[in-house]
Design goal:
- It is a single chain.
- With about 220 residues, the chain is mostly helical.
- The protein contains 10 helices and no strands.
- The chain is elongated, with a radius of gyration of 25 Å.
């Protein structure tokens, strides 16, 4: 989400005026950097990919439902530059907590996940496609969000909440601690039995080569 769209979101919840919206957006950015750094360095391997994405989706969706309800029941004042009322401060707090959940799942983890799953021979194509699609949808969201805020009001938070809760149903398999060779198995390209048979066949072939080499040395 771009800086302009973020400022507009804070404006929609009552942080009107350039100073108020920029200050609230700046705090949001600081919280996001700190939360992302803590998660990536200390928790991404202990929690795993799948459970982190589920917790992230549930947290973001719940907080968006709360923000939408507060915005519906306590609409912010329209006076530009006025001090944000308590309800607006509560919604800003929910956005700061929201970005913590975002930073432990759907923010950094897609980049980690795509680096886990592609084999060496297709890694460059896979990462390029993932990066292009990520930035494409970021661009689309950034372009349509201002109009959606203007036209939908509080309903935009309910819509995003529903989308986030729906993302909990993702069927992405867990990749924590798995090797590249195991990715074909968990994604169904080959069965575990077939992979075990291939490994056993390779081990037998290596054993025969070792025996042949030993026999040659003995004869020499």
């Amino acid at each position: 989400m771009g800086w302009t769209e973020l400022c507009q979101i804070f404006t929609s919840i009552g942080y009107t005026g350039t100073k108020n919206s920029l200050l609230a957006s700046g705090i949001y950015g600081v919280v996001k950097v700190i939360a992302t750094s803590l998660f990536v360095f200390f928790f991404v391997e202990s929690l795993g990919r799948r459970i982190s994405l589920i917790i992230s989706s549930f947290g973001m969706g719940t907080l968006f439902f709360i923000i939408g309800a507060l915005l519906k029941t306590h609409p912010p004042p329209t006076t530009v530059g006025a001090n944000p009322p308590p309800a607006s401060k509560a919604m800003a707090a929910m956005l700061y907590i929201y970005v913590c959940f975002y930073s432990m799942g759907w923010g950094p983890l897609p980049w980690v996940y795509v680096s886990d799953i592609f084999p060496t021979r297709t890694r460059h194509f896979g990462l390029a496609t993932a990066s292009a699609s990520q930035w494409l949808f970021n661009f689309v969201v950034s372009k349509v969000t201002p109009d959606m805020i203007t036209n939908l009001g509080y309903k935009i938070f309910l819509m995003f909440a529903t989308i986030n809760i729906g993302a909990m149903a993702t069927f992405l398999p867990e990749t924590k601690g798995l090797s590249l060779e195991e990715m074909d198995v968990i994604f169904g390209a080959i069965s575990a039995e077939e992979r075990a048979a291939h490994i056993a066949e390779q081990q037998r072939a290596l054993g025969h080569e070792k025996n042949d080499t030993s026999s040659i040395h003995e004869k020499a």
